[in-house]
Every structure is written in structure tokens, then in C-alpha cells.
Amino acid sequence: MEPILEIKNLKKYFPVKQGFIRRASGQVKAVDDVSLTLYEGETLGLVGESGCGKSTFGRTVLQLVKPTSGEVMYKGKDLSKLSFKEMRPYRREIQMVFQDPYSSLNSRKTVRSILEEPMKIHHLFTRKEREEKVDHIMELVGLNRTFADRYPHEFSGGQRQRIGIARALMLDPSLIIADEPVSALDVSVQAQVLNLMQDLQKQLNLTYLFIAHDLSVVKHFSSRVGVMYLGRLVELASKTELYKEPLHPYTQALMSAVPIPKTGIKRERILLTGDVPNPQNPPTGCAFHERCHACMDICKVERPELKEVGKGRVVACHLYK
Ligand code: SF4
Ligand code: MG
């Protein structure tokens, strides 16, 4: 498989106002030196608790936030170096699906005008062609085309997320960044939307970066899974390997809540003690050490770097040499 997206040493630091003085030291390392590659046609799941930087990571890819440093190579082009205007063609190819379809859909517009908007912005197609495209995509996402003249509030949560997905598809993208696309939906509806996304991927040859806080959601159709903690990637592995034998103690803790496939048996529950540390003042050494059941002396002083521990499998933890 060809790489479609290669992220290299990506950092996004946000300055934090402290009182009236903006001190140079006051910053949050939302994304701190993350490198990973996405291959065409795959789904890479990215998980971690809220505030771990996974949404910022997704937005940085689309240049919705400019990275502090690092490269975002899309099909060989570094998007982080492009101007707003130069970014335009790539904004067609890379689309985002958001967590809350309701707040991301303009409530004063009909579904048809919401779906036509991206084509208008990019000056694509005649009016008739745009109408036909809306009808086609509506059916592709499982919505009756007669619904196009209704407003977002007339739909259920699941239907609204279908509209959000339809909007992302209007410009025939190659890569979709889905930021917690089912987190706001009832469990019964989640599976339907995930199945739809999976079908669309096959039909349209889409690549997904699928962001979630829950390992059971990305398990559904990710080929590989990355785990983030406080702005850093702490583990990345194929789905099969990660779910069979998670290596990083943080992944192990997240995983202990997920039933083992086919048996429904849960692993021994590892409770995460304490809260996610304040990202403005992260712990020394391994940022996870205050919550880690396997913490050693070295963990408090030395930050573990990502190490390759198998083919395409990396982990950042002193337990693995
Ligand atoms: Fe735990 Fe140490 Fe590994 Fe961090 S480096 S996850 S503290 S064992
Ligand atoms: Mg988020």
C-alpha cells in the first residue's frame, strides 16, 4: 500500500495566558512530536482520553490549526508549508466529519443547500449537476432524496451524522478525518453509522483517520490503532496485535474495559488512578508515571522514546528495551 499521509515530528504548542502576562513558559504541548504514516485505503484508529491532543492532531492535518513545527506530507506535498490559497485543492481531497453533527450543520439551511455549499465554494458543476450530486450522495448515505428539502432539526442524531458524512463526500475526497463521529450517538445507532462508513470506504476507496476515546469503537474497522497520551503517541500496532497483547500500561488499562472478542469476557480490570495530569505542567519522565501500575525509578526521570518492538509496532515505555 502507498502512503497517503506522512506525519513527521508534528508539534502543536498553544501559548497559555497566565493572568495578564503571557509568559514564554506558559504553553500546552497539545501535540508533542508525533510521527505516523497512513496508507491508502486503510483506517487508522487514534485513541486516548479527552485532552490528549487527538483532535488537535486531526485538525493540524487539515491545517485548520497550523503546526508549531513538523511536516504533514500529503501525497508527497508538505501541507504545513502551503498558504491558505495553495491549500485549496487539498481541502477538497481531505474532509472532516465532526463529533456533533447538529452543531456542525447550519440549522437555518435545508439539507440540500448544506450539501451544495462545498461545491459552490469550489465553483464546481452546473446547478443541475449539483442537484443530481446531492441526490446521489443522499442515497449513498442511506437517506431518502426527498429529505433534502428539510432542515437539520427534523432529523434524528443518526440521520444528522449521515448528513455530516454526506457533506464530507460532496467533493469526492480521498482522506476523511473522522473526529469521534459516533460518540454523540446512542449505542444502537453507532453500529449503523460505523457500518455505513465501512461500506463507503470500500465503494469509494477512502482512507480514514478515525479519532475516538473508546477502543471498542475503533476496533470495529481499524486496520491499525495508535494510542495517544498527553500529546504523544505511546503505542502503535496492527489492530490484531494491539487487541491481543497491548504493551503500553496505558493501552492495557484502556483495553481492560473492552470485552475479549467472541467470548464477551472482560480482561482483568486495570483501573486508571488519578486524572489526566495538567497538560500545562506535565509530569517529568514518562508523562504516565503517576498513574502507571508498573512505574519504575527510571520512569520518573527519563522520558521513554518510541521504540520499534516488532514489524510496524512501536511503543514508548521503559518496560521494553
Ligand atoms: Fe509505566 Fe514506566 Fe512504561 Fe511509563 S515508562 S508506562 S511509567 S512502565
Ligand atoms: Mg476531541
TrEMBL record:
One of its GO terms (molecular function) is ATP binding. Pfam families: ABC_tran, oligo_HPY. InterPro entries: AAA+_ATPase (IPR003593), ABC_transp_ATP-bind (IPR050319), ABC_transporter-like_ATP-bd (IPR003439), ABC_transporter-like_CS (IPR017871), Oligopep_ABC_C (IPR013563), P-loop_NTPase (IPR027417). Gene3D superfamilies: P-loop containing nucleotide triphosphate hydrolases. The keyword Transferase does not apply. Belongs to the ABC transporter superfamily. This is Oligopeptide transport ATP-binding protein OppF. It comes from Halalkalibacter wakoensis JCM 9140. The lineage of its organism: Bacteria, Bacillati, Bacillota, Bacilli, Bacillales.
